[in-house]
Amino acid sequence: GARHRKLGAGSGWRRERSGASRRSGEGFSAPGEGGKGEPSMLGTLRSEDCGYELQVRASWFRLEDYYRKAMNYSLMIIFTVPAQIYLLVKQTEHSGTQAGMAKISLACVGWQAVLDSYQCLMHLTAGIIVETLFHSFSTAAFFQFTLFSVFEMRVLLQIWKSRRPNSEQNWLEIRRDLSALYSRFYGGFLLGFVIMYWCANSPWFIALLCNSYWLPQIAWSAWHNAKKPLMPAYVLGTSAIRLLVPLYVFGCPDNFVRVKPQFWVCWLLVIWVAAQVTALAAQHVFGPRCFIPDAYLPEVYDYHRRVEPEVLAGAGAGDEECGEAGGVDCVICMNAVDAKAPRERMVTPCNHFFHQECLERWMEVKMECPTCRGALPPL
Biased-composition ranges for Basic and acidic residues (predicted)? Predict the structure, then answer.
């Protein structure tokens, strides 16, 4: 239990090993010196003049091991981001029509874009601070920048455009809409920073909030009765890939950020994401409103509704604004429609008649009336 005294200018600082260290003889251990466990240093800094005491508990690590772990992490990001891009492109092809894009929640894709922008910023900052890791982390940041700034923003624009099918906008109106879209994105970006600042002492809550990106899609599908908006492969693949980073941070004992494993957080995240995926799967199989009571849902337009006699007397003519006249013909297939058979025909809010099969196929491409281009409610 050696005691060392350092004479300074006007104050005497005394450094000594703690009592536990004196008894065990393990006050200081270094690699290669037979120390057990992680190399560490325990001790006390005490000022006899001021009466202050500072407990010291330090540990060290090999920089080579740290760089190796960081490189492995960056390689994981570099290889998983192209998989995310592939899944997103396949989902875009699956929902390539106006009606398909309108089924996707804007907040769901925007949530994921904000998460990718956070990771891009963190990786770029880490690469700038640690010069040795610049190349690997800047590459990972570049991949994620491409993901959110090119692919995800493109999907956001397509969804935004699908909500305005009939708008003949001039350049000023287009700029206004684009400004509104980007304002929402950057507003969510800044709001996320505020939430992370206030919840800095609860990283598990931040991770839980970041992995709640399917909730807007679940709510959107239920509210708008959007049937099968997302591919199952996209949902499963995206969920698995986005879980890799939090599971690495909270579950890997040798993670390069030196966070102690918290396996309960890992289980919580897996169960939470699995619950969201299960809800999406139930909506995909049993319908978007399968688990919500009808009393809490908005009224759905009935395409097989009864039609007023004056409309039938007009032989399926449209409203006064459209000025249509003539027989009850389906303008999609150009064949006659039995307007008096509600189960075999469909009538739009603008009183235009179509075969059920024809209009359902049409609405998979466009959510507008084939006759007057009026907006159509979802089925």
Answer: 13-25
pLDDT in tens, 208-267: 999 999 999 999 998 888 888 999 999 999 999 999 999 999 999 888 888 889 999 999
Each domain of the chain, given as residue ranges in start order, spans: 3-59, 63-296, 301-379
> What residue type is assigned to position 158 of the chain?
Q
Q: Distance between CA atoms of 172 and 264, rounded to whole angstroms? A: 52
Question: Which one-letter amino acid corresponds to residue 305?
Answer: R
The contacts of residue 64 (CB under 8 Å, 6+ apart) are: none
What single string gives the DSSP state of each residue in 87-143? HHHHHHHHT-SHHHHHTS-HHHHHHHHHHHHHHHHHHHHHHHHSGGGHHHHHHHHHH
Q: Which of 262, 259, 291 is nearest to 275 (CA)?
A: 291
| Residue 89: both structure tokens together | 């492109």
Report the run of H or E that residue 346 belongs to, with start and end: strand 345-347
CATH topology of domain 301-379: Herpes Virus-1 (3.30.40)
pLDDT at 6 (0 to 100): 43
Give dist(CA 345, CA 307) in Å, integer.
11
> Is the separation of the CB atoms in 138 and 132 below 8 Å?
no
What single DSSP character describes residue 200? T
Two tokens at 305?
């509704």
d(CA 376, CA 352): 11
Residue 8 has pLDDT above 70, yes or no: no
Half-sphere exposure of 222 (CA within 13 A, CB side): 20
